[in-house]
Fold these 2 entries.
Entry 1:
Amino acid sequence: MARSKNGSDDPAAGTAGLSDPTFGVRHVAIIMDGNGRWAKRKHLPRALGHKKGVEAVRNIVRTAGEMGVEVMTLYAFSSENWSRPEEEVSDLMGLLRQYIQSDIEEFVQNGVRLKVIGNYRALDGDIVAMIDNAIERTAQNSKMTLAVALNYGAQDEMLRAVRHLAERVGEGELDPQAIGLDDIANALDTADLPPLDLLIRTSGELRLSNFLLWQAAYSELYFTDALWPDFDKAELEKAFQSFGHRERRFGGR
Ligand code: IPE
Ligand code: IPE
Ligand code: MG
């Protein structure tokens, strides 16, 4: 069957939305930005902005599952976020602990498979253990994959991939001239995920901030002024609708 312009195999794709609320988006990623500005506007401490941000995560993960999204990748903590004041980093790590603890049962029940991208093993030992436990407990789930980017930077991800391939070359397993695009893709943290269809950034900033630089080669980009704590089901629907109107060409004509 011919693929429609929004990538869906659905014959009713012309009326997409009625039949598919995701408009053909299998994999959506979000740069969840604007917690600090949300708090500032309300004259609240930044920590409360991050707390509201976690509520928005909980809500959007549920919504994405209900809408039939296959993979949702969320940028939660970048490899550059360590440069924030110690107190803020510690607030964010505290919220991460709470989030995993309180939501793991819901993931198990709702068929959500948890995955982490980024060098998360550099986080505090108790968080690493919690994450490994949650990954193991949800490994067989297949309704949706929630990929959380923790201590993630796309350049760091590519650096780790290059090292991995160089090691294989060093061991005589791989011929440098035979390295293909697939070898690189398979060495990235996202190796087991489908192509990234749509990349959303909230809070009005028009940059990628070191997120999924390889994977976003042909992704559709969507920027909204909504601050992350205000990003809800209606906002996600708007992003999917926008995706539904895009003509994806992948360099062809
Ligand atoms: C996003 O909100 C959360 C993280 C980066 C962890 P910010 O904390 O970046 O909020 P702004 O950009 O200062 O408003
Ligand atoms: C990107 O937001 C990282 C996350 C959302 C986790 P930042 O707020 O860190 O990005 P910059 O500093 O504005 O580029
Ligand atoms: Mg920010």
Entry 2:
Amino acid sequence: MKKILSLLCLALFLVSALFLTGCGKDTASAKRVDIFFPAGLARFEASGQTLKSSLEGQGFTVNLQFAATADEQGQQIEKAASDGTNCVVIAAVDSKAVGSSLAKAKEKKIPIIAYDRLPLNTDAVDYYATFDNEGIGVAMAKYVENKFNLKQNGGPYTIEFFQGSDDDNNAVLIDKGMMSILKPYIDKGQLVVASGQTRFQDTTIKGWDGKNAAARLKQLVSQYYSGRSLDIIMSASDSISEGLVDPAAAGYSGSQPFITGQDATPKALDSVQNGKQGITLKKSDALLNGKCIRMIKAAVEGTQPELNDLKTYNNGSITVPSYLCIPTIIDKDNLAEAKD
Ligand code: BGC
């Protein structure tokens, strides 16, 4: 009798344990993912929402927060770490400032996935889902190389560079990619930088902010381009290009420069359609989010992430296992491809 009773108790215990843990499987519904993105940038506002809804569709509980400053973002991460999230997804406001907050999450063994922007000088990152940033600079530059027949000795054309924010590792890589293609043409005189400003520290636009870009353009126009045409503007993002697509506002009176960008924001797509911007790059949310979600699941549920780069993204502390997605170039001829 005693034996029967203890067997019954054991069975009861097993049934309730199965019930409590979701039928023996650790389901995603029990898992909370905290996403920390920069505020005020169309790209991240949109991607944050699509990532959140895809994760929710797969049963995760999602806490999506935007921050305007590195301090605000640090506080958000530390709160989530102490509340006890199951996974942190981070696109840093400032790549170099986020390490100490991420360390607090790492101490609690919370997995950390870097999204699009890589936190620097920290070992508190498990995986990195991004687009090939150096490749983005190369793609923009190659488009210009073709369009302006540079391989066939086209030129001389005037050109200026508007690079991304110097607190973002991506900006440095885009500049590197762009210059790897265009510097030889500058050296040969086929491309003429009238301002002479080619170094990243001279062309970086704080916060990738169009207003800062507009202010720099105004300065360049008054010093170097009054009565001279500016043929090409290598802009690292659509947010920067927003401040450049109406150069008349900066006092420029020549013909419209060919302007680059990335992100395929709604405003940039309008500008491409009406000829104010030459190209943008579509960074598909479906693609990046898919890879990111696989990484989250790998970290949280012990499945396999998909990785395609184990050597490029050394962040000054560790080399972060990554998946690099490839964006699509959008010009007037393939605007329809900008849809996800
Ligand atoms: C992203 C770009 C974006 C820029 C400004 C970068 O980190 O890679 O897609 O244009 O931030 O939002």
